[in-house]
């Protein structure tokens, strides 16, 4: 039974599928301190949060059973991704569910500052009938600058067009073609500052975007510009904004997010007549909360049940067509890794993976993760496909991926060479139609082995009678041989024997085998 902890008031409707899952037990809690969460997180397999709960390094390390942290929303800045990756914890988000809600709040904010609605409301309910102070501006024919043209920025741009605005978009990933399709002009931050009547930001908060709008940008802005931030506090320099309003450059600002949330009671925005604020409500609609909770619950179930998943934030996204093409190879890749990892003693220094045949047409990096996971699992605990590449890097294991256009014998071929300071082994495997996964080469020897169960890998000199001696020794110790493969390059030269046995070979029998004079090496493998 998997235990899932749901925090931050995530929609009950949205997590219905978790309540209904027979293999899941759900607990809901709100407002736990870091100490309180750290004290209980060790019991749970999955943690679901919005933005209030900070999933810190401490929480991750206390979460000894934690397999997944689900963020019911877009931004994952409240989750320590590096700490998660190190521990092999998958972090997922729900990137699509709150796009419209946040876009609509942005528009509501834009219209509210264009017409000073909150300020006018406050006076009116206070008993004043002030029709002179609140003369607003129209949106029509105004220029809107959008910084960050992803999901939300693009939706804002679409709506702005419907209001008769001209839109200039800035985003390093926005191409001319896409800009044209959405009907926006491509511009730089400088263009936007110089031309825009309204500026809205829709980027994540990163080192690059922190204070991307600050004093130098305000100084070049058109007088009377209005600023909206429904993305993340810190993208716009709060102090510089207040100065720009007070000096008459900026006519008004609307903020849903703050550098520190909640803001301190004396925060300069809170009593400023030209700044309106909301308490991070971008995603707070019934629909968005249901959408993000559904999306994240679905993914959490996939991860707990070890089924394919998307939207992992600490792993590269794999498009569905690539995942479908690679899925059948994942087990083979892991088995090749497991096999090879058991053939060496010292620390692994290099892994060279070569993909041939059908596999050259796809991005094979997810398959490489499975191979590396298999190799490292022999030496390290807790390796999974999330942390495999990270663990390889932190242990100075070089992973080299190559492609050969064709395999002379097989339609697809995965060859892996594993190197330590002293040893080097090669293993190749394929997926054969009708036969499934096969190991087809060990070092220089062609073989045909199903990669599963208990195996004995024996190196020996090719002499008459050796197979009989090995068979007799195993038989007399009640180890039944299921299959046997012998590989050699030349008669009488070095050869290998691969046996599959119905049960593991006892240690003392391995010792007796190693003492047979014709055998040069005996390795027991479990796949
Ligand atoms: N107020 C709220 O409740 C909500 C806030 N958000 C915030 O809105 C942000 C945007 O959300 P989405 O549009 O869904 O994300 P997205 O990932 O679709 O779009 C973000 C865009 O920002 C662009 N970008 C990144 N660095 C940039 C830079 N230096 N300059 C210009 N553009 C840059 C990216 O290329 C991308 O196109 C999120 O990162 C999140 O922080 C999201 C949902 C709700
Ligand atoms: O969960 C929330 O309300 C915050 C939404 C948000 O900021 C996000 O999805 O990035």
From TrEMBL:
GO molecular function annotation: NAD binding; phosphoglycerate dehydrogenase activity
GO BP terms: L-serine biosynthetic process
The keyword Cytoplasm is assigned to this record: no
Involved pathway(s): Amino-acid biosynthesis; L-serine biosynthesis; L-serine from 3-phospho-D-glycerate: step 1/3
Segment forming the signal sequence: none
Keyword annotations of the record: Amino-acid biosynthesis, NAD, Oxidoreductase, Serine biosynthesis
Entry keyword annotation includes NAD: yes
Catalytic activity: (R)-2-hydroxyglutarate + NAD(+) = 2-oxoglutarate + NADH + H(+); (2R)-3-phosphoglycerate + NAD(+) = 3-phosphooxypyruvate + NADH + H(+)
Domain of life assignment: Bacteria
Enzyme nomenclature, EC number: 1.1.1.95
Family assignment from sequence similarity: Belongs to the D-isomer specific 2-hydroxyacid dehydrogenase family.
Protein role: Catalyzes the reversible oxidation of 3-phospho-D-glycerate to 3-phosphonooxypyruvate, the first step of the phosphorylated L-serine biosynthesis pathway. Also catalyzes the reversible oxidation of 2-hydroxyglutarate to 2-oxoglutarate.
Record's protein name: D-3-phosphoglycerate dehydrogenase
Origin species: Paenibacillus naphthalenovorans
Organism ancestry: Bacteria, Bacillati, Bacillota, Bacilli, Bacillales
């Amino acid at each position: 039974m998997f235990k899932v902890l749901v925090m931050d008031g995530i929609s009950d409707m949205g997590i219905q599928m978790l309540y209904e899952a027979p293999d899941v037990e759900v607990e809901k809690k709100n407002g736990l301190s870091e100490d309180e969460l750290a004290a209980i997180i060790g019991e749970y397999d999955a943690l679901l949060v919005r933005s209030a709960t900070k999933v810190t390094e401490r929480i991750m390390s206390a979460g000894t059973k934690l397999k997944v942290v689900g963020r019911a929303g877009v931004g994952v800045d409240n989750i320590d991704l590096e700490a998660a990756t190190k521990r092999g914890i998958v972090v997922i988000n729900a990137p699509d569910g709150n796009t419209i809600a946040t876009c609509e709040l942005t528009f509501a904010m834009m219209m509210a500052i264009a017409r000073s609605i909150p300020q006018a409301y406050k006076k009116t309910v206070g008993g004043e009938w002030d029709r002179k102070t609140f003369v607003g501006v129209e949106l029509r024919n105004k220029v809107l600058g959008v910084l960050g043209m992803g999901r939300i920025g693009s939706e804002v741009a679409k709506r702005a067009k419907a209001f008769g605005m001209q839109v200039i978009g800035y985003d390093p990933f926005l191409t001319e073609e896409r800009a044209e399709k959405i009907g926006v002009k491509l511009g730089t931050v400088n263009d936007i500052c110089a031309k825009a009547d309204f500026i809205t930001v829709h980027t994540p908060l990163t080192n690059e975007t922190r204070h991307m709008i600050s004093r130098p940008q305000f100084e070049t802005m058109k007088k009377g510009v209005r600023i909206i931030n429904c993305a993340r506090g810190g993208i716009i320099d709060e102090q510089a904004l207040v100065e720009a309003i007070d000096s008459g450059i900026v006519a008004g600002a609307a903020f849903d997010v703050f550098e520190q949330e909640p803001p301190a009671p004396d925060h300069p925005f809170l009593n400023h007549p030209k700044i309106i604020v909301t308490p991070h409500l971008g995603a707070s609609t019934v629909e968005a909360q249901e959408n993000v909770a559904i999306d994240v619950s679905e993914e959490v179930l996939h991860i707990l049940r070890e089924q394919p998943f998307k939207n992992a934030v600490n792993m590269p996204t794999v498009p569905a067509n690539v995942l479908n093409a690679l899925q059948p190879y994942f087990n083979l890749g892991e088995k090749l890794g497991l096999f090879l990892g058991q053939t060496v003693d010292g620390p692994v220094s290099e892994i060279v993976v070569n993909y041939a045949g059908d596999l050259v047409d796809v991005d094979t990096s997810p398959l490489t993760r499975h191979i590396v996971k298999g190799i490292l699992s022999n030496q390290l605990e807790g390796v999974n496909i999330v942390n495999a590449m990270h663990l390889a890097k932190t242990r100075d294991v070089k992973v080299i991926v190559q492609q050969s256009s064709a395999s002379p014998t097989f339609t697809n071929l995965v060859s892996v060479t594993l190197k330590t300071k002293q040893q080097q082994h090669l293993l190749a495997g394929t997926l054969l139609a009708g036969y499934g996964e096969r190991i087809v080469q060990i070092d220089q020897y062609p073989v045909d082995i199903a990669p599963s169960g208990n195996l004995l890998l024996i190196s020996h000199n090719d002499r008459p009678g050796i197979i009989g001696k090995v068979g007799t020794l195993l038989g007399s110790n009640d180890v039944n041989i299921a299959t046997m493969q012998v590989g050699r390059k030349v008669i009488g030269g070095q050869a290998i024997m691969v046996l599959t046995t119905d049960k593991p070979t006892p240690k003392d029998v391995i010792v007796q085998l190693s003492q047979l004079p014709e055998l040069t090496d005996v390795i027991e493998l479990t796949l």
